[in-house]
Specification:
Elements lengths: L18 H12 L5 H4 L16 H12 L6 H9 L6 H13 L4 H6 L6 H6 L3 H16 L1 E7 L5 H14 L4 E7 L6 H6 L21 E9 L2 E2 L1 H8 L2 H6 L6 E8 L8 H13 L2 E2 L25 E3 L9 H22 L5
Parallel strand pairs: 1-2, 1-3, 3-5, 5-6, 5-7
Antiparallel strand pairs: 3-4
């Protein structure tokens, strides 16, 4: 499902309209001044409570609960709001206006709750809208799902993972999602190692791997092999191995090492055995990254096996070229995953 063009956002030269001027206009479009009280009930259901604003993530998560649709992607939300699949007349138009143009205004978030309660409940109950729900669910199930699953202690692998996700998501018809594997070290140990707090990427369980059509696995090296945390996660996939639920699915590998000669190739080589026992298809990037593979002027991580970086003493961060290679790997594997899934993903 193609993403519609982003609307023009207000600039600092064009201040937000006055809240009190906006309320009557919204109420008029929704059915009269009697709705002003309902508008003032609050739009907190769609808010990211931590940030205090509406984001696509909070809208996706909370709209799913409000509308009873199950998990939605950002793409689904964009279609709901921008393409008017549900024909919610003035309500959807005002919801779009509120979310896209006023999402930094707590007052308007609070004032617009009725757009997700009574107005939407009424408008979404008809036969036409039920077909729209089915269309979104059908489209979502047809998308190729690529999971970027990683372990990162100091953030180097995570930065590569984020670029890989962007690359995979740039392929039309592909849903890319970041996952972390569980940490095996205690908090006091991590603290003594000066490890920063984990990001908010969700923790994956072994059975959730079966949902994906393709993978990119990432980890730091430990003595030329993957970190124990990732190995422990793979050791827990015996149930998937027994039923061969991952067989035939493509997977790539990316990594971080402390120094040159520290495992940029051996880490990938020793990780391939995990894929083999699951019957997965290892997808190296080869030399498809082009001239970037032949960089000799500066230190560069990565190899034909996959994207990579050097952490050094921890202060070195992935370079622009290393991040570009990671983006390329995500896009490359996503395209292959889509082809292998077949026409349904087109």
């Amino acid at each position: 499902m193609a993403s519609p063009k982003s609307p023009t956002r207000p600039t600092q030269q064009n201040p937000q309209p006055n809240f009190h001027d906006f309320l009557p206009a919204m109420a008029g479009n929704l059915g009269g001044e009697g709705l002003i009280g309902e508008l003032c009930n609050g739009f907190e259901l769609l808010m990211d409570r931590e940030k205090g604003v509406i984001t696509f993530e909070s809208l996706r998560r909370n709209a799913a609960a409000v509308l009873g649709l199950g998990d939605l992607t950002d793409e689904d939300v964009r279609c709901m709001i921008k393409e008017g699949d549900f024909d919610c007349d003035g309500a959807l138009n005002q919801m779009e206006f509120c979310v896209l143009m006023f999402r930094l205004s707590p007052d308007l978030m609070e004032a617009s709750r009725c757009l997700v309660t009574e107005a939407i409940e009424e408008e979404f109950s008809g036969e036409k809208n039920q077909k729209s729900f089915e269309k979104i669910e059908r489209t979502s199930s047809m998308a190729t799902k690529v999971y970027i699953v990683y372990y990162s202690m100091y953030g180097h692998v995570e930065k590569l993972a984020q670029e890989i996700r962007k690359g995979a998501a740039s392929v039309d018809g592909v849903e890319a999602k970041l996952w972390q594997v569980p940490e095996t070290l205690q908090e006091d140990v991590l603290s003594k190692m000066s490890a920063p707090p984990k990001s908010d990427a969700p923790i994956i369980t072994p059975n959730e791997l079966a949902e994906a059509d393709g993978f990119v696995f990432g980890f730091p090296t430990r003595f030329g092999m993957m970190a124990a945390q990732f190995k422990a996660f793979l050791d827990a996939t015996g149930g998937l191995w027994r039923t061969q639920q991952l067989a035939g699915k493509p997977a790539g590998i990316f990594y971080s090492t402390g120094s040159q000669g520290g495992g940029q190739e051996t880490t990938a080589l020793t990780a391939i055995t995990q894929l083999v026992h699951h019957g997965m298809i290892f997808v190296p990037i080869g030399y498809t990254f082009g001239a970037g593979m032949f960089e000799m002027e500066n230190v560069k991580g990565g190899s034909p096996y996959g994207a990579g970086t050097f952490a050094g003493d921890g202060s070195r961060q992935p370079t622009e070229l290393e991040l570009e290679q990671a983006f390329h790997q995500g896009k490359y594997i996503a395209a292959i995953s889509k082809k292998l899934k077949g026409p349904a993903a087109a």
